[in-house]
Design brief:
Blueprint: H1 3-16, H2 36-46, H3 100-109, E1 138-139, E2 173-175, E3 180-182, E4 186-193, E5 197-199, E6 205-209, E7 214-221, E8 227-233, E9 240-247, E10 253-263, E11 266-271, E12 277-281, E13 288-291, E14 300-301, E15 311-317, E16 325-330, E17 338-342, E18 356-363, E19 369-372, H4 375-385, E20 389-395, E21 398-403, E22 408-413, E23 418-423, E24 437-443, E25 449-454, E26 460-464, E27 470-476, E28 486-491, E29 497-502, E30 517-523
Antiparallel strand pairs: 1-4, 2-3, 3-27, 4-30, 5-6, 7-8, 8-9, 9-10, 11-12, 12-13, 13-14, 15-16, 16-17, 17-18, 18-19, 20-21, 21-22, 22-23, 24-25, 25-26, 26-27, 28-29, 29-30
Length: 542
């Protein structure tokens, strides 16, 4: 252990003894009296020699079997700090707010970042291309043009005993109308386009236009055999929210409606064991909202957000069904990854509005970690080891999350308080390339982990198998997608349909209400995306 690590452990001990401030251990309370100028000094003294840190050579070496629902590296979008109160009735949890004076000290003394997201876009406005996607556009596979269609432009892949025709990672199917390439044996259509009403299976249109800036999403099964695709909108200044596209049991779109409105920059979130969606706002005073996918219950603010922050994603350790533990990431250099443990009891909607204990993640060295009641030390730790945390997920006793600044995936063994890391760069089998930040990561029904990409010239969706090999499922290549990101990755309950969005999708200016489109993908042989593939050899992509 070097000098820096001894100093960091000493800092932790001081904090736990309340010598850095009046740390309180009450449920939902945040610490007062923090000496943030001292914290800055510690940050400068404790920053480790990153060149000496050990790194794995392959992405997802430690986590290929995880299910991580993440969201984007937000370097290209931001919004000024605004005070937005959602219009719907909300149960605001009681929590002591961090003083405005402390925030001013942070902004004045810390030169690494700013507390409020920047308002400047990632790049200059993108010109509208000549080949914008349109709703209901069904693009057949170039190898096998046969497809089943029903309900007008609605497509229902038929159950099949057909020969396997899917070849993961072989981007030979050039869908020129959309400006993307998909794996051999795949089809694709546009389900919805931002600022346009969604086309329904009965030939009518939805009463509301599809939301702009689609981001984090999840699919929930419905009691009638259908399912709902729940999607965040990352619009700023109170224009965000949560929306839902409803499908019948054949996979036809039957409805579209709003579930939460008047929120700001709804980025990612996560699912709960009681089948609700938690939507996270990512701005200085953002909150975490619980949403009913069926819309039967009004959305409510949860205790997870405390006094507010740049929240990104939520994961849940549900090994104890009477006491699920929730983890929340914060996309800010001096953020704090928090852990909320509710009191034991029947887990339900009210769990996220009830009493519990909030703790914060602190790395002690390159191999161990602890949880602290004081968020000061946690913020220092995050700024050094895992700044700007994006997606997070839990599986089999291990908590996974990604730092977009470090381009690193972390795997925390919650039972032994140890962790490992893996870099997020590497090659692909077959065609395609992955050169930018991994964003959302989710699992379908099998051994593949799927992830999206933020930025660059070819944003797409990729998969990694149990052996660590990676493949491109689809990639964009048209100029309209330059600096765009893929988002909203989710699968139908049976795994045969994959949904993904482009957050800009060729709009004139990123961040506006006409930005975004939702796509549906399927295998032409009707099988799950995790099912068998053509047994052909690959050559490593350049």
């Amino acid at each position: 252990m070097n000098f820096h690590q001894y100093a960091f452990i000493a800092l932790l001990a001081l904090a736990e003894c309340a010598q850095l401030g009046a740390c309180v251990g009450k449920t939902g309370d945040f610490n007062k009296g923090r000496d943030l100028k001292k914290q800055e000094v510690f940050v400068r003294r404790l920053k480790p020699d990153t060149k000496s840190r050990k790194k794995s050579s392959a992405f997802f070496d430690v986590a290929y079997n995880s299910t991580i629902i993440s969201n984007k590296a937000k370097s290209r979008k931001g919004s000024p700090e605004v005070d937005i109160t959602p219009a719907m009735t909300a149960k605001a949890p009681s929590a002591k707010s961090r003083s405005a004076q402390s925030r001013d000290i942070v902004a004045a003394s810390m030169t690494y970042d700013t507390l409020v997201p920047t308002a400047s876009p990632f790049g200059p406005p993108i010109a509208v291309p000549t080949m914008l996607p349109t709703e209901g556009s069904i693009i057949p596979d170039s190898v096998n043009n046969a497809m089943d269609r029903s309900g007008g432009d609605q497509l229902t892949p038929s159950p099949t005993n057909e020969k396997v025709k899917f070849r993961r990672g072989d981007l030979k199917n050039n869908v020129r109308r959309l400006g993307i390439k998909v794996s051999r044996g795949m089809g694709v259509r546009v389900v919805a386009t931002a600022n346009k009403r969604v086309k329904l299976a009965n030939g009518l249109r939805s009463s509301l236009p599809f939301h702009g800036m689609p981001d984090g999403a999840a699919v929930f099964p419905l009691s009638d055999g259908g399912y709902v695709y729940v999607s965040n909108s990352e619009m700023d200044s109170g224009r965000g929210g949560v929306y839902a596209v409803y499908f019948n049991k054949r996979g036809d779109v039957v409805d579209y409606k709003m579930l939460l409105s008047n929120t700001t920059r709804n980025c990612a979130g996560g699912t709960t064991p009681f089948n609700t969606w938690v939507s996270c706002e990512e701005f200085a005073r953002g909150q975490c909202w619980q949403v009913d996918p069926e819309g039967r219950r009004s959305s409510e603010m949860t205790v997870l957000g405390g006094e507010g922050g740049n929240y990104e994603a939520v994961a849940c350790d549900d090994r104890n069904p009477l006491q699920p533990i929730f983890y929340v990431t914060e996309d800010f250099k001096f953020g704090a990854l928090r852990k909320f443990t509710p009191v034991e009891g029947l887990a339900s909607w009210d769990t996220l509005n009830g009493p519990g204990t909030t703790e914060y993640l602190v790395f002690l060295d390159d191999k161990t970690f602890t949880w602290s009641l004081c968020d000061d030390v946690a913020r220092t730790s995050q700024s050094i080891y895992f700044p700007n945390v994006e997606g997070i997920d839990f599986k089999d006793g291990v908590l996974y999350f990604v730092s977009k600044k470090k381009l690193m995936l972390y795997a925390l063994d919650l039972d032994n308080n140890t962790y490992t890391t893996s870099p997020t760069n590497g090659g692909l089998l077959g065609s395609g390339e992955f050169k930018n930040s991994p964003d959302q990561l989710i699992r379908n029904e099998g051994d593949f982990l799927y992830f999206t990409e933020d930025g660059g010239k070819t944003p797409g969706v990729y998969a990694v198998d149990a052996s660590g090999q990676r493949y491109a499922i689809f990639e964009a290549y048209a100029p309209m997608y330059f600096r765009d990101k893929t988002s909203g990755l989710a699968f139908s309950p049976d795994g045969t349909k994959m949904y993904a969005c482009f957050q800009d999708c060729g709009c004139k200016r990123s961040g506006e209400g006409d930005c975004g489109c939702m796509l549906e993908f399927w295998r032409n042989d009707g099988r799950s995306f995790d099912g068998a593939t053509m047994n052909l050899k690959y050559h490593l992509s350049e």
